[in-house]
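Colleagues,

Please find the record for the four-part complex below.
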Amino acid sequence: MNETRDRILDVALDVLGDNPDAGMGDIASAAGVVRRTVYGHFPSRLDLIRTLTERAVTEMTAVLTEVDASGAEADAMWVEFIARIWPVAHRYRVLLALRRGEYGEAIHGLLGPLDELLADLVKRGQDSDVFAQHLPPGILSQIAYGVVFAIADSDPSNGTLGARAATITSLLMLGVPETRAIALVDDQP
Amino acid sequence: MNETRDRILDVALDVLGDNPDAGMGDIASAAGVVRRTVYGHFPSRLDLIRTLTERAVTEMTAVLTEVDASGAEADAMWVEFIARIWPVAHRYRVLLALRRGEYGEAIHGLLGPLDELLADLVKRGQDSDVFAQHLPPGILSQIAYGVVFAIADSDPSNGTLGARAATITSLLMLGVPETRAIALVDDQP
DNA sequence: TCTCCGTTGCACACTAGTGTGCAGTCTACT
DNA sequence: AGTAGACTGCACACTAGTGTGCAACGGAGA
């Protein structure tokens, strides 16, 4: 039904991932349509980006709330969360870049609930002495999450080779000892 | 003599720090001059940014090579480097944002030598088992350095309160155990 | 006083993007 | 065959920035 619309969204994620400043024209031609068609589906550039962000938030909060329900320790939850978010993180890496800039405020607003869930998880970890307390949970969660995205971004292949490294790195940063971090990661099914 | 030129450079760092997409007009009025005057000193926007970057690279490589000469262990070197780079990092935080984008290539080229020095330091740390090896030195150094900038960016006051947290966080990420990290940081004169 | 020289104010050309209007075409469905 | 809906192609108005040219201004120093 809306296959063109979906293709535009998929392609926009790719194109903006390569260059967050890409214009509607670039997205259109990458999707094999004309610029006017894109405006037919998304009245403005902001609409497109908002739709993309909503998609990301939906996918990510779904994963996070599912993981949350497991009742495991905070560090184990984090490992599971990153493992499941990893394939998605690379696709949506552009959102991190787009948070500073013209649409920053809009994106920030949509990402807000996800940020809170993450901060909660980190806070619980800090309260039970699983995570270190050198930074407040709000900042620590953002930085740790940002590192995962940054590694996803440095990873050319989007393969699972980087997922392990990203998980270990973020765990270390959260204050989990290296031996425990490696044990947790290697426990993944 | 060149007090206007210097003021423009200083102010540009502030303005671009707040908004990396600020135009020459924004910089000019923030510096209390007219746009035309800015073009009198810097023929193009790229010139301005290049000059800013050269300044940053000069300051930072000076610090890093000085620290390098101490012959200390890699983790101690890192602590000293961050401690001395911290006041500068906040001012030049814009460069991290500017690396992706229009002038990315130019900035990347200028920052190259600094990147290599950092990667060398991390590699030496990995070789002597002071740093973990979950990521190749080139990526690990970038991520660790990025985290320091990111925390500097979250820090509203640019006070030294965040410096401690940033140093600990980057050490943890580099694989230094928490107790050792804290000991190192508290050893700072 | 005269003269540089940095600065100003304004006009201009150019680029590159956004978003709209509208008539025409193609295709799938009835 | 006919029609509805999506897509196209093109023109247009608008915004916002870059970089240039040039005459005029004003102050510090010879």
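The mean pLDDT of chain B is 91.

Comments are welcome before we finalize the supplementary table.
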